[in-house]
Amino acid sequence: MATVEVQGPIMQLLLLLILAQMSLTGSSPPPDPVACAHGTSNCTINNAYASFPDRRPCHAARAAYPRSEHELVAAVAAAVAAKRKVKVATRYSHSFTKLACPGGSDGAIISTRWLNRTVRVDAKNRLITVESGVLLRELIRAAASAGLSLPYTPYWFGLTVGGLLATGAHGSSMWGKGGAVHESVVALRIVTPAPASRGFAMVRELGTGHPDLDAAKVSLGVLGVVSQVTLALQPLFKRSISFLKRDDSDLAEQVASWGRLHEFGDITWLPEERKVIYRQDDRVDVSTPGNGLNDNLGFRPLSASDLVASRIQDENLQKNGSDAVLCSANRVAQAYLESRAFGYTNDGVNFTGYPVVGYQHRMQASGSCLETKDDGLKTVCYWDPRIRGTFIYNTGLSLPFSRAPAFVADLKRLRDRNPQAFCELGTSGVLMRYVKASTAYLGKPVDSVTVDIDYFRSRTPGTPRAHADVIDELEQMVLLKYGGVPHWGKNRNFVFNGAIAKYPRAGKFLEVKKRYDPEGTFSSEWSDQVLGIKGNANILDKGCAMEGLCVCSDDTHCAPEKGYHCRPGKVYAGARVCAR
Ligand SMILES: Cc1cc2nc3c(=O)[nH]c(=O)nc-3n(C[C@H](O)[C@H](O)[C@H](O)COP(=O)(O)OP(=O)(O)OC[C@H]3O[C@@H](n4cnc5c(N)ncnc54)[C@H](O)[C@@H]3O)c2cc1C
Ligand SMILES: *[C@@H]1O[C@H](CO)[C@@H](O)[C@H](O)[C@H]1NC(C)=O
Ligand SMILES: *[C@@H]1O[C@H](CO)[C@@H](O)[C@H](O)[C@H]1NC(C)=O
Ligand SMILES: *[C@@H]1O[C@H](CO)[C@@H](O)[C@H](O)[C@H]1NC(C)=O
Ligand SMILES: *[C@@H]1O[C@H](CO)[C@@H](O)[C@H](O)[C@H]1NC(C)=O
């Protein structure tokens, strides 16, 4: 999720109210995704939204909280000796799918919560080494205090280094090696299983140029526990950012050129409004005046009671199907976000006009809802599962850069059939970013444009969503017609079915997996499905397509009793969607 992307269905009717009442005094920090009934045993693990795609939490027999690499090795060894399956849990666990679930129900969780130290900053060689549980926020701060920065990162800084690498997370760039963080990794240390004769666990040190780095940089967490990561930095620089709103008539051409023109460029398309917000975002000399700050409005602490009220509105709109109301609410919210520059300020306080110029470490990412002054759930990050507020799906796909213009043209045809259906995407619209082909085996196979959307999710399984057929068609179009691949940390299940076949070097990844983890200690049902080792990610069941657990192939996968049947897409006839 990203700048404007995250402000989807939440930010509608009550947006103004929420922002007006924003607390400046604190925010309740997100909960720990791991909860154990007795000390560190009999545990459940969930994601940050407290809901996996199949809506069931996972169980584990125990959880370990190592505070050093030495303790980490002991934790892996204990699990291997006891023949338990293992997965890593992070401070917040943002991935949507069951990546963090150990196999079976009596596995072990190793949390990187306390592996959160900066090990060393080597200013001369522009390198930083951190433990894998370090938040992107801390990495950015530690680098900046040595006059250095990581050029391309996700826009939300609550992610851990281990988690964002494992899922191939990225910002946006077509320059250099592109927008993914793993392109900056030069070395790492990973703890893997070992034979009993070697104490059941070992540290593997993958230094600069080590061939296995291409497996370990983007590993989905199945090779072992990454202990430390060394990243290459650049001298701290400044950026100059303007958001330009234009009509969408030439978007198909722009998508091919924007990323080449602007180092950090991205594109937010608002299909219903027929407008595009172009992020014109470039590196400038440090002498350029400006002390800009990015404090994204959607990542600020928001009032829990307003989020709950907003959710009730969203639920009613889903039921009543009043497109016009939703669309006009979006437009009001959108105008407001634009007037506030989405949370960018020129001086850390006020927005006085574009461009906003500031140091990279103040501009690249944000997340003020993480500040940990507990106010008893009065204000929270908007997705906090302890209140009945926002509940959404986040789809993140990418398609070959060369095919992006054709995709945009197709999506315009779908839009033209019913523009108001796209109001379901809220103010976040369709976010497009740039990521280049990677040497990482599970990184992008080719230069890519990523497509991010957020949309309403019901708390009641099987409940029809307004215009779900249009969103499903969009997703299947990217995947099937344009050869797209999923973001490893986002999405609903069906998106992963067959995905691994689109990675030409998946076989090399699996060879490393066999060498590092021959017994499959770090494998789970879900990772086996995603990697094509065993089974597949679809859950073929009654109503499965209503939940994104499958693509429908007959009516029972939809909700015929509610009038939803399995039909071809309207523009992409190869899609199969549940429609009325
Ligand atoms: C508000 C928000 C904004 C976002 N913005 C962006 C964005 O701009 N760009 C983008 O690409 N993504 C974005 N994301 C998605 C995000 O990148 C992924 O969800 C990411 O994986 C989450 O990182 P995490 O630290 O929460 O890891 P988790 O979800 O907890 O873990 C991911 C996987 O990595 C494994 N893992 C974690 N640490 C280790 C380790 N040390 N060793 C081995 N395996 C490990 C876990 O077991 C799990 O399998 C966003 C998510 C949110 C919630
Ligand atoms: C584990 O905890 C749950 C409650 O969270 C309890 O119902 C269950 O009996 C416990 N199981 C064991 C083996 O202790
Ligand atoms: C590491 O995490 C712990 C627990 O979440 C926290 O109390 C501590 O301040 C963190 N340390 C650093 C250096 O961020
Ligand atoms: C939708 O329906 C609910 C309850 O059925 C009602 O309270 C609400 O006013 C309706 N909203 C709109 C916008 O029609
Ligand atoms: C910000 O704007 C307010 C009025 O909107 C003004 O009172 C204040 O002085 C400004 N702050 C700065 C730092 O310019």
UniProtKB/TrEMBL annotation:
Keywords: Ascorbate biosynthesis, FAD, Flavoprotein, Oxidoreductase, Signal
NCBIfam families per the UniProt record, alphabetical: pln_FAD_oxido
Pfam families on file: ALO, FAD_binding_4, GULLO2-like_3rd
Domain of life (superkingdom): Eukaryota
Record-listed E.C. numbers: 1.1.3.8
Record's catalysed reaction(s): L-gulono-1,4-lactone + O2 = L-ascorbate + H2O2 + H(+)
Presence of keyword Signal: yes
Signal peptide start-end: 1-27
The FAD-binding PCMH-type domain, residue ranges: 56-236
GO biological process assignments: L-ascorbic acid biosynthetic process
GO molecular function, one term: L-gulonolactone oxidase activity
Similarity comment: Belongs to the oxygen-dependent FAD-linked oxidoreductase family.
Record PROSITE patterns: FAD_PCMH
Name of the top EC class for this enzyme: oxidoreductase
Alphabetical list of InterPro entries matching this protein: ALO_C (IPR007173), FAD-bd_PCMH (IPR016166), FAD-bd_PCMH-like_sf (IPR036318), FAD-bd_PCMH_sub1 (IPR016167), FAD-bd_PCMH_sub2 (IPR016169), FAD-linked_Oxase-like_C (IPR016164), FAD-linked_Oxidoreductases_BP (IPR050432), GULLO2-like_C (IPR055154)
Source species of the chain: Panicum virgatum
Cofactor: FAD
Entry's Gene Ontology cellular component terms: membrane
Protein name (Swiss-Prot/TrEMBL): L-gulonolactone oxidase
Pathway the protein contributes to: Cofactor biosynthesis; L-ascorbate biosynthesis
